Amino acid sequence: MSRPGFAFWRIFRWLDSMDPAAARHIAEIMDALAEKKVASVTRVMPDPHKDIGLNILSQFHYGANVKIATFETLADALQNIAAEVDSPSA
């Protein structure tokens, strides 16, 4: 079981397309993460045009306190997380 405040990472590097019917399953995953008290969601989406509505789904399925960040490269995502570790907010 996950502790409150855990981080969730998802890398969409190889995503070519997604069937619209998948939105229901993605929403269910988001609801489960929110129920387990996810604190942050980090996505790596190399092609922003392939975002199949994750930002819109996020608004409805994650709480307002969940930090969501999307990056085009894994290196950018890792650099961001390293910066947060070096200078955590109070």
**How confident overall, as mean pLDDT?**
83
The helicity comes to: 25-40%
Q: How does the major sheet shape up?
A: 3 strands, parallel
Please, how many helices?
3
Hey, roughly how much beta strand do the residues contain? 15-25%
Q: What is the β-strand count?
A: 3
Overall 3D form: flat
Q: Output the strand order for the largest sheet.
A: 1-2-3
Stretches with pLDDT under 50, minimum 5 residues? none
The H-and-E topology, N to C, reads as EHEHEH
Overall structural class, as computed from helix and strand content, comes to alpha/beta
Explain how this protein is built:
The model has no long low-confidence stretch (mean pLDDT 83). The longest helix has 14 residues, at 22-35. By secondary structure, the protein is an alpha/beta fold. Strand 2, helix 2 and strand 3 (67-71) form a beta-alpha-beta unit. The radius of gyration is 14 Å and the shape is flat. The chain has a three-stranded parallel beta sheet with strand order 1-2-3. Helix 1 packs across helix 2 (54-61). It is built from three helices and three strands. Helix content is 39%, strand content 17%.
